[in-house]
Amino acid sequence: MSKILIRGAKVLGGEPQDVLIDGETIAEVGTGLSAEGAEVVEADGRVLLPGLVDLHTHLREPGREDSETVLTGTRAAASGGYTAVFAMANTFPVADTAGVVEQVYRLGREHGYCDVQPIGAVTVGLEGRKLAELGAMHESAAGVTVFSDDGKCVDDAVIMRRALEYVKAFGGVVAQHAQEPRLTEGAQMNEGVVSAELGLGGWPAVAEESIIARDVLLAEHVGSRVHICHLSTAGSVEIVRWAKSRGIDVTAEVTPHHLLLTDELVRSYNPVYKVNPPLRTERDVRALREALADGTIDIVATDHAPHPHEDKDCEWAAAAMGMVGLETALSVVQQTMVETGLLDWAGVADRMSRKPAEIGRALGHGRPVSAGEPANLTLVDTAYRGEVDPAGFASRSRNTPYEGRELPGRVTHTWLRGRATLVDGKLA
Amino acid sequence: MDTEQQKQQYESDARPVLEAPDIARVLTRIAHEIVERAKGADDVVLLGIPTRGVYLAQRLAAKLQEITGRAIPVGSLDITMYRDDLRMHPPRALARTDIPGDGIDGRLVVLVDDVLFSGRTIRAALDALNDIGRPRAVQLAVLVDRGHRELPIRADYVGKNLPTSLRETVKVQLAEEDGRDTVLLGVKRTSPDGPQ
Amino acid sequence: MQRHLISAADLTRDDAVLILDTAEEMARVADRPIKKLPTLRGRTVVNLFFEDSTRTRISFEAAEKRLSADVINFTAKGSSVSKGESLKDTAQTLEAMGVDAVVIRHGASGAPYRLATSGWIDAAVINAGDGTHQHPTQALLDAFTMRRRLVGRDAGLGRDLSGKRITLVGDILHSRVARSNVDLLHTLGAEVTLVAPPTLVPVGVETWPCEVSYDLDSTLAKTDAVMLLRVQRERMNAAFFPTEREYSRRYGLDGDRMAKMPGHAIVMHPGPMVRGMEITAEVADSDRCTVLEQVTNGVSIRMAVLYLLLGGNEPAVTHTRTEEK
């Protein structure tokens, strides 16, 4: 593999520098580096970040290849600046055995657009009753460390306690989808002013918050770590903040859409806004942004959830929940966090690369942009402004809530271990 | 709807062809003709077509009462939902259809309208009557007949025959609705937005 | 301009009064030997019912037939819909047969709105009840009944319900009738109070243009019309209230409670009534109870809506909220 010189890139948003990639690693970072023998990429003041890491992606393979595959999903990830994604376990069959996680892991490696780290199911078939073979999945070639029944909540307190305890043996973490099932029977959208008017079943904030409260206390009691998926309410932020102040080993993620969109959009009854957890209120959005800025929320995770057109081109109640997010995540974060002054680019690198890699133990990812580190890099044209056009997505699905919306920033290059997966906005 | 300014402009351009005393006189004449042709008007029911036909019908009824000494049943017949041009305009607000208590079966119904023009309104009125009952006979009284029939319809009682060109407009004003009695003959103006 | 009727909240005061006035004229047609008008001759209306509601369907069908529209009835049960065909495909199939308007009843809130705004079909859409969202023609017939009884049949023409005090009692949470009535009655100037156990009042009700009370007795004395909403027995099993007996003791209308109302006050119910639950037989059969008038008025209101939306080359009713982009 040859040398690549990225010239004049604002590393983590700082002063322009040159970055020389040699083979799979960063050879040198400095100014006025020699271009001899290297392919030159003129960065022209674009921002260079460590390759992004998504702790929460639905790749849908095996089972729902009509909406996404490991190939199309990792191509979407590369387009969005990601070099590693964690693939959720709610496939068909469920990723609750070493066999399924190894298959997904291998597909990611073969396609080569983005490292795929499978997440294992906590319980067999995501049914919440019997622990899956967590140890076997960890020991498999996939080396699973994150376990989640995402899409469903591990609502049984005893099962949750046992899972938290059990994964301590190999440094695993349980990522909880916090949704009290009884409080969300028939729930269609955030419960509040808008649901009252639209006559859609309410999804109360307390259904999320009560589970988070229980789980941080369980984590404290058994001395384990717990990760909270897609935290969406101001109350959840308060609970996590309290837990961290007590020294509980809890981490939390927020999705880009919960940083930008509110339940007012549901007035259109357009199911493109139907998502789990639901879009909340302006007050929640503000609290989530502040929490991401002050570190209460550790990371941004996309909850990239592809669905075929027919599952969204219907009445609200019949529609599937979820939005695609890999190809718009960084733009939404730029708009909601960077351009509002809440985070600088170093902060973005921390929330979208370093910390998610650390939580998921993704070796070689989320590393500093410095000599000797793996060359997992993302180059972002932060001055770009453009309307989101789903027709240009690499993902197989188009269910984005941002169609036609102007968002800032565009990923132009992505390098996975020194190999370009995205060049000038086009997949390699 | 005309603006006040357009209305004044129209009225200053238009020429009165009947004034209040003329209107009173022709209604009296029509009343006498009805009594004569209906042989005492024993079974007459007057039905005015909204808006101004209703006031004319009421005035005729009063005159008939003066002549015969008996109260003559009078009502209104809205023809909006029987029009043949419904799909050429936005839906119109409905006016009142008010059939006198004893109905119209076996009676002599005299339809009353202000201006007889294409005949389409009267065609709609005959359809409407058909759904309400079965009169012995139907006659038509109008204040002004301006010609240009598009259907084989004629009036039995005419206040004034007024030969007009299609470029002209005929406007009846009655005290009950417009504050004064007059019939105006004007010239149709075409605005840049199309014909009025 | 919009050609649809999706929500009572979309109607301006003038629109609503025009519909009520038009319905008064339509009501007179019912008194004639031939209860039929040629107005919608050649227009085709499909009644697309994804939920059982014989009453509402028959009411629309009667209105459509009295206006001489061609009527197609489509009931989801036993059709391709029960085999998984989507709303979109069903609607497009019907439109391919050349329908001018779709009257839709659907269990999913927002389904008529989707039908009207998603570009699936061109026909006018009239909401005949969607989930727990809206039932605008029910609210219109209720307002029509109130105006006749509380203002007067002729005296009411051109007028709204300013200053009238209306109380809605029962399962507000799951009621599209309540939502539509709150919107329309507020537009017409009435003062609305909702009375229900707190479990059956939606979270978020505080932004609605009405008062909320948990106490029926204190409200009745200041009420010109009380509307009882049906309370489904299965709500008991979801712990919305303990027992039928306790519900009817606290929120049911019996003769003693009715006696506390002003002499002119009326008792309304959208039907079907659960006698012994929200209303006793004594009240249901009293001459203050307008249930059957409401049914009669429903046909007149639906004729008025059909005429004003379909009777011309464009609708006479303007809309604010559901405007197409």
Automatic annotation (TrEMBL), chain A:
<keyword id="KW-0862">Zinc</keyword>
<dbReference type="GO" id="GO:0005737">
    <property type="term" value="C:cytoplasm"/>
</dbReference>
<feature type="binding site">
    <location>
        <begin position="58"/>
        <end position="60"/>
    </location>
    <ligand>
        <name>substrate</name>
    </ligand>
</feature>
<dbReference type="InterPro" id="IPR004722">
    <property type="entry name" value="DHOase"/>
</dbReference>
<dbReference type="GO" id="GO:0044205">
    <property type="term" value="P:'de novo' UMP biosynthetic process"/>
</dbReference>
<feature type="binding site">
    <location>
        <position position="56"/>
    </location>
    <ligand>
        <name>Zn(2+) 1</name>
    </ligand>
</feature>
<dbReference type="InterPro" id="IPR002195">
    <property type="entry name" value="Dihydroorotase_CS"/>
</dbReference>
<dbReference type="InterPro" id="IPR011059">
    <property type="entry name" value="Metal-dep_hydrolase_composite"/>
</dbReference>
<feature type="binding site">
    <location>
        <position position="58"/>
    </location>
    <ligand>
        <name>Zn(2+) 1</name>
    </ligand>
</feature>
<feature type="binding site">
    <location>
        <position position="307"/>
    </location>
    <ligand>
        <name>substrate</name>
    </ligand>
</feature>
<keyword id="KW-0479">Metal-binding</keyword>
<feature type="binding site">
    <location>
        <position position="150"/>
    </location>
    <ligand>
        <name>Zn(2+) 2</name>
    </ligand>
</feature>
<dbReference type="GO" id="GO:0004151">
    <property type="term" value="F:dihydroorotase activity"/>
</dbReference>
<dbReference type="Pfam" id="PF12890">
    <property type="entry name" value="DHOase"/>
</dbReference>
<feature type="binding site">
    <location>
        <position position="150"/>
    </location>
    <ligand>
        <name>Zn(2+) 1</name>
    </ligand>
</feature>
Automatic annotation (TrEMBL), chain B:
<comment type="similarity">
    <text>Belongs to the purine/pyrimidine phosphoribosyltransferase family. PyrR subfamily.</text>
</comment>
<dbReference type="Pfam" id="PF00156">
    <property type="entry name" value="Pribosyltran"/>
</dbReference>
<dbReference type="InterPro" id="IPR023050">
    <property type="entry name" value="PyrR"/>
</dbReference>
<feature type="domain" description="Phosphoribosyltransferase">
    <location>
        <begin position="18"/>
        <end position="161"/>
    </location>
</feature>
<comment type="function">
    <text>Also displays a weak uracil phosphoribosyltransferase activity which is not physiologically significant.</text>
</comment>
<dbReference type="GO" id="GO:0006355">
    <property type="term" value="P:regulation of DNA-templated transcription"/>
</dbReference>
<comment type="function">
    <text>Regulates the transcription of the pyrimidine nucleotide (pyr) operon in response to exogenous pyrimidines.</text>
</comment>
<protein>
    <recommendedName>
        <fullName>Bifunctional protein PyrR</fullName>
        <ecNumber>2.4.2.9</ecNumber>
    </recommendedName>
</protein>
<keyword id="KW-0328">Glycosyltransferase</keyword>
<dbReference type="InterPro" id="IPR029057">
    <property type="entry name" value="PRTase-like"/>
</dbReference>
<keyword id="KW-0808">Transferase</keyword>
<dbReference type="InterPro" id="IPR050137">
    <property type="entry name" value="PyrR_bifunctional"/>
</dbReference>
<keyword id="KW-0805">Transcription regulation</keyword>
<dbReference type="InterPro" id="IPR000836">
    <property type="entry name" value="PRTase_dom"/>
</dbReference>
<dbReference type="GO" id="GO:0004845">
    <property type="term" value="F:uracil phosphoribosyltransferase activity"/>
</dbReference>
Automatic annotation (TrEMBL), chain C:
<feature type="binding site">
    <location>
        <position position="135"/>
    </location>
    <ligand>
        <name>carbamoyl phosphate</name>
    </ligand>
</feature>
<dbReference type="InterPro" id="IPR006131">
    <property type="entry name" value="Asp_carbamoyltransf_Asp/Orn-bd"/>
</dbReference>
<dbReference type="InterPro" id="IPR006130">
    <property type="entry name" value="Asp/Orn_carbamoylTrfase"/>
</dbReference>
<dbReference type="InterPro" id="IPR002082">
    <property type="entry name" value="Asp_carbamoyltransf"/>
</dbReference>
<dbReference type="GO" id="GO:0006207">
    <property type="term" value="P:'de novo' pyrimidine nucleobase biosynthetic process"/>
</dbReference>
<comment type="pathway">
    <text>Pyrimidine metabolism; UMP biosynthesis via de novo pathway; (S)-dihydroorotate from bicarbonate: step 2/3.</text>
</comment>
<feature type="binding site">
    <location>
        <position position="230"/>
    </location>
    <ligand>
        <name>L-aspartate</name>
    </ligand>
</feature>
<feature type="binding site">
    <location>
        <position position="176"/>
    </location>
    <ligand>
        <name>L-aspartate</name>
    </ligand>
</feature>
<feature type="binding site">
    <location>
        <position position="83"/>
    </location>
    <ligand>
        <name>L-aspartate</name>
    </ligand>
</feature>
<feature type="binding site">
    <location>
        <position position="271"/>
    </location>
    <ligand>
        <name>carbamoyl phosphate</name>
    </ligand>
</feature>
<dbReference type="GO" id="GO:0005829">
    <property type="term" value="C:cytosol"/>
</dbReference>
<dbReference type="Pfam" id="PF00185">
    <property type="entry name" value="OTCace"/>
</dbReference>
<dbReference type="InterPro" id="IPR006132">
    <property type="entry name" value="Asp/Orn_carbamoyltranf_P-bd"/>
</dbReference>
<dbReference type="GO" id="GO:0006520">
    <property type="term" value="P:amino acid metabolic process"/>
</dbReference>
<dbReference type="GO" id="GO:0004070">
    <property type="term" value="F:aspartate carbamoyltransferase activity"/>
</dbReference>
